[in-house]
Specification:
The protein is an alpha/beta fold and 418 residues long. The protein has a domain at 3-84 and 118-186 and 286-370: FAD/NAD(P)-binding domain, CATH 3.50.50. The chain has helices at residues 3-6, 22-33, 46-49, 60-68, 73-81, 117-125, 173-178, 252-259, 267-273, 316-331, 340-369, 374-386, 389-397; strands spanning 14-18, 37-42, 55-59, 83-84, 88-92, 97-101, 112-116, 133-135, 139-144, 149-153, 158-161, 163-166, 188-200, 212-216, 220-228, 231-239, 280-286, 299-301. The strands form 4 sheets. Strands 6-5-14-15-16-13-17 form a 7-stranded mixed β-sheet, sandwiched between helices. It has a 5-stranded parallel β-sheet with strand order 8-2-1-12-18. It has a 3-stranded antiparallel β-sheet with strand order 3-7-4. A hairpin with a 2-residue loop joins strand 15 (220-228) and strand 16. The longest helix has 30 residues, at 340-369. The radius of gyration is 21 Å and the shape is globular. The model is unreliable at 411-418 (pLDDT under 50). It binds flavin-adenine dinucleotide. Flavin-adenine dinucleotide (FAD) is lined by residues 18-24, 41-44, 49, 56-57, 137-139, 167-170, 173, 194, 196, 235, 282, 284, 303-305, 311, 314-318, 320. Keywords: FAD, Flavoprotein, Oxidoreductase. Its cofactor is FAD. Pfam families: FAD_binding_3.
Length: 418
């Protein structure tokens, strides 16, 4: 479908977005495709906004969104700059294969693309006209007078739009203000921390049959994936107290070496190639689902601001991409200005079954991957090894059933709750 065919009369002429992460940038592009003016405000400076640790999976469901946006140019650039997600799976830490899938399980040539986060941010940023993203603006609060929303920033400046979209991440201040508070409650600690970074594949021998692999130990796991151009991203999870750091053991590299020393190759060799200055460590959090209502009046939320997950499915960013598309699409159903709040609530209630399911399955996969008892790990590995692949695939297949479409007859987001 050509852009001109999908631009329709809408009473939402201008959207204000808070947050220049994956969700906010994707939503801004989707608005422009729909003929809606958009201003995106980001608290960080541009170089910081375009940075980020390690790599990210943009899976097939989210890639379908990018195929539709900006006449497919984001989609094309992701393929040019990233690594395709091909076969991959889970192994024991001694490298016994437990589960492997191939893109065929969803009838595709690949399951999407992985790439380094700064590259993804840069690609998304470049889709927007120069004056769309305004950096150095720290959101403070908003006033919704029923006809428009006025947004206030910490430096006293303001912006006004027909709707306000909070895409400001895990600690979303837009969400806090919706709850009548200045700051959100602390998120829920998952019990694990994560190290992330990247390495060059020329220094390690990797099994060429797999573009990604995750090794399960007791209370920890290690994974790597192809992010294109000879680079790979890695991650390591470990059960630990919140707020920890690696000072006591002499740094992040040392911590990884100690933790994963008894894993089979290629894990120790990968760690050997790492550079301390490019390793990030974070505690991992999520929040209980909000239910069917995320916003109020002319204000809504997308991405982590609405539904932060544990990162065990590699779908947090992908769900933000889906949100961005579905929200931009429903805005074109508001020919009557009075409908705007109800259309935003419909967007939220249509999205919630799918994102709530991602939340639940993400936690389940995390609990399995982070099992720490001897018996728990034995049964986990044994069950995965004995389960037929087609049955194990069902755990993930529904994620790929999402089929975004500009078609108004599919309003508001068919297949959202498959
Ligand atoms: C270890 C790990 C691995 C992951 N792997 C994957 C993966 O492979 N695939 C995947 O899809 N997802 C993955 N995720 C999840 C993914 O990273 C997040 O879901 C995604 O980045 C969220 O994007 P967002 O745009 O909603 O929020 P963010 O990326 O958090 O962006 C929010 C933006 O808002 C800005 N902001 C915050 N407050 C304000 C304010 N007051 N005023 C103005 N601006 C503000 C911030 O500076 C930031 O730029 C992973 C997460 C982790 C922790």
């Amino acid at each position: 479908m050509q852009i001109s065919e999908k631009v329709v009369e809408t009473s939402v002429k201008k959207a204000i977005v808070i947050g220049g992460g994956i969700a906010g940038l994707t939503f801004a592009r989707a608005c422009l495709d729909m003929g809606i003016e958009v201003e995106l405000y980001e608290k960080r400076q541009l170089d910081e906004m375009l940075s980020g640790p390690g790599g990210i999976f943009i899976q097939r469901n989210a890639m379908r969104v990018y195929k539709l946006l900006w006449e497919g140019r984001i989609y094309q650039r992701l393929y040019e700059q990233g690594g395709k997600i091909l076969s991959g799976g889970f192994s024991s830490k001694k490298a016994t294969l437990l589960y492997v899938n191939t893109p065929k399980f969803v009838g595709e040539e690949d399951l999407g693309v992985c790439l380094l986060r700064p590259k993804l941010q840069q690609i998304l940023y470049e889709t927007l006209p120069e004056d769309t993203v305004k950096t150095g603006f720290n959101f403070s609060h908003f006033e919704d007078n029923g006809e428009n929303v006025k947004v206030y920033f910490e430096d006293g400046s303001t912006a006004t739009g027909d709707i306000l979209v909070g895409a400001d991440g895990l600690y979303s201040k837009v969400r806090a203000r919706l709850n009548g508070t200045e700051k959100q409650q602390e998120p829920l600690y998952s019990g694990m921390c994560c190290w992330r970074g990247y390495f060059n594949s020329s220094k390690v021998t990797l099994d060429e049959r797999y573009s990604w692999m995750e090794y399960w130990g007791r209370g920890n796991r290690f994974g790597y994936f192809d992010v294109g151009g000879g680079e790979y991203s890695f991650y390591g999870f470990n059960n630990s107290e919140p707020g920890g750091n690696d000072d006591k053991v002499g740094g992040k590299l040392k911590a990884l070496q100690l933790l994963f020393s008894d894993y089979a190759e290629p894990v120790p060799s990968i760690i050997q190639t790492l550079d301390e200055s490019t390793i990030y460590r974070d505690d991992i959090f999520d929040r209980e689902p909000l239910g069917v209502e995320w916003g109020r009046g002319r204000v809504t939320l997308i991405g982590d601001a609405a539904h932060p997950f544990q990162p065990n499915l590699g779908q947090g960013g992908c769900m933000g991409i889906e949100d961005a598309f579905e929200l931009a699409k429903v805005l074109t159903f508001t020919s009557d200005d009075k409908q705007v709040p109800s259309v935003l609530r419909q967007f939220e209630s249509q999205r919630s079954p799918r994102v709530d399911r991602v939340f639940t399955v993400s936690r389940q996969v995390g609990n399995l991957g982070q099992s720490s008892s001897v018996m728990g790990c034995f049964f986990r590995n044994w069950i995965y090894k004995l389960t037929p692949t087609w049955l194990a695939d069902l755990q993930f297949k529904w994620l790929f059933d999402y089929q975004p479409s500009w078609d108004h007859n599919s309003y508001p987001g068919e297949n959202l709750s498959n």
